[in-house]
Automatic annotation (TrEMBL):
The active site is at residue 200. Keywords: Carbohydrate metabolism, Galactose metabolism, Iron, Metal-binding, Nucleotidyltransferase, Transferase, Zinc. InterPro entries: GalP_UDPtransf1, GalP_UDPtransf1_His-AS, GalP_Utransf_C, GalP_Utransf_N, HIT-like_sf. Fe cation binds at residues 216, 316, 333, 335. Its EC number is 2.7.7.12. It comes from Cryomyces minteri. GO terms for molecular function: UDP-glucose:hexose-1-phosphate uridylyltransferase activity; zinc ion binding. Homodimer. Residues 8-207 form the Galactose-1-phosphate uridyl transferase N-terminal domain. UDP-alpha-D-glucose binds at residues 28-31, 61, 77-78, 187, 193-195, 202, 348-349, 353-354, 360. This is Galactose-1-phosphate uridylyltransferase. One of its GO terms (biological process) is galactose catabolic process via UDP-galactose, Leloir pathway.
């Protein structure tokens, strides 16, 4: 367990993945838990919605008609945040002027995909079994493989893929450039800005490295250099598996835990226990282990406050194209960032001190992990049927 005094005093915890700190105020949780209590929410959505642009057989915004898919379905986003075809941009200021130093910009090209998790409109990852989540993991892997640089060491272990998602023009999704990074993510719930409840996630590929995975990659490489080739997150997984107090779920391949440095009240990280650089490093058994870990985390989330628990989830792994040092320092992991604090309607907001100084939390990661561990078992909604 952490030093006993840390349960009673405000303190800061270090995040080695971002080289940042968070303020923890555990004394604020000494009072009994008196969060608001709402009735357990039921699923009111139909299995099929004729007005949903993600349901099988329905028409999307640009006029394409979805196939009658039975598992996952991938297509190029009709309203992509980045585009493959656009004018190049290069700053005209090349001297050492203030404009050059302070008013910087660079063009970004890329491609955005939508991935439906199930043909059923009224299901979420929490409703799906590991065997139903496995096709999602396999599809993620195929999309990553189809964009992987042939020069990457990962290309030597990646299995050939025939995945060819289509855009509104029905053109194959083969990229017309070598992209640098792929961000796979899911926003669940309207609280996270999700505009359609049909279970789905997104995949964005870009020419540059986004800031968050870029910060992590810098720290992972630094640790590897300083520790003689060791991998930070493999070492961290080993440490947490030994200590247990922040572990929510564990199987043979993956560990789900509330990180020592977590910002969000019930933040969870899913870690490969052994060094896996990216999804393509996983064998069939390990992919099943990842599907099981995702099922366990999402079901426990919903059981915690007996609601459709909102979150943003993202996968961090090796860049599609990078140096050998970048690839080997990378470690496959998933972040779950949920906003709920005390109940189905009471949220955590990053405001005031947290915006102007640094993030702060009351409930400790150890307390959060204990509560999530207690939420194992059948999904609460099945008991309401």
């Amino acid at each position: 367990m952490p030093d006993a005094i840390l349960d009673d005093i405000s303190h800061r915890r270090y995040n080695p993945l971002r080289d940042s700190w968070i303020l923890v105020s555990p004394h604020r949780t000494k009072r009994p838990w008196q969060g608001a209590q709402e009735a357990a929410s039921k699923t009111t959505l139909p299995q099929y919605d004729p007005s949903c642009y993600l349901c099988p057989g329905n028409k999307r915004a640009q006029g394409d008609v979805n196939p009658n898919y039975e598992s996952t379905f991938v297509f190029v986003n009709d309203y992509s945040a980045v585009k493959e075809e656009q004018a190049d941009y290069e700053s005209v200021d090349r001297d050492s002027s203030l404009s050059t130093m302070l008013l910087r910009a660079e063009g970004v090209k890329g491609k955005c995909y939508v991935l439906t998790f199930s043909p059923s409109h009224n299901l979420t990852l929490a409703d799906l079994s590991p065997s139903q989540i496995l096709p999602i993991v396999n599809t993620w892997t195929k999309i990553y493989t189809s964009h992987l640089s042939p020069k990457s060491p990962l290309a030597q272990v990646a299995q050939p893929t025939t995945l060819a998602p289509h855009s509104h023009s029905e053109s194959p999704a083969t990229p017309n450039a070598q992209y640098r990074y792929m961000q796979i993510f899911e926003n669940k719930g309207s609280a996270m800005g999700c505009s359609n409840p049909h279970p789905h996630g997104q995949v964005w590929v870009t020419t540059g490295t986004p800031e968050e995975p870029g910060l992590e990659l810098t720290q992972l490489q630094k640790y590897r250099r300083e520790q003689g080739g060791a991998n930070m997150l493999e070492d961290y997984a080993t440490l947490e598996a030994t200590k247990k107090e922040r572990v929510v779920f564990e199987n043979g391949s993956f560990l789900a835990l509330c990180p020592w440095w977590a910002t969000w009240p019930f933040e969870v990280m899913v870690l490969a226990k052994e060094h896996k650089r990216a999804l393509v490093d996983l064998n069939d058994k390990e992919k099943q282990g990842l599907a099981e870990a995702i099922a366990e985390v999402t079901r426990r989330y919903d059981n915690l406050f007996e609601t459709q628990f909102p979150y943003s989830m993202g996968i961090h792994q090796a860049p599609l194209e990078g140096t050998k040092e970048e690839i080997e320092a990378s470690h496959l992991h998933l972040h779950f960032y949920p906003p709920l604090l005390r109940s189905a309607t009471v949220r955590k907001f990053l405001v005031g001190y947290e915006l102007m100084a640094e993030p702060q939390r009351d409930i400790t990661p150890e307390q959060a992990a204990a509560r999530l561990r207690d939420c194992w078992g059948e999904l609460y909604r099945k008991k309401l049927e």
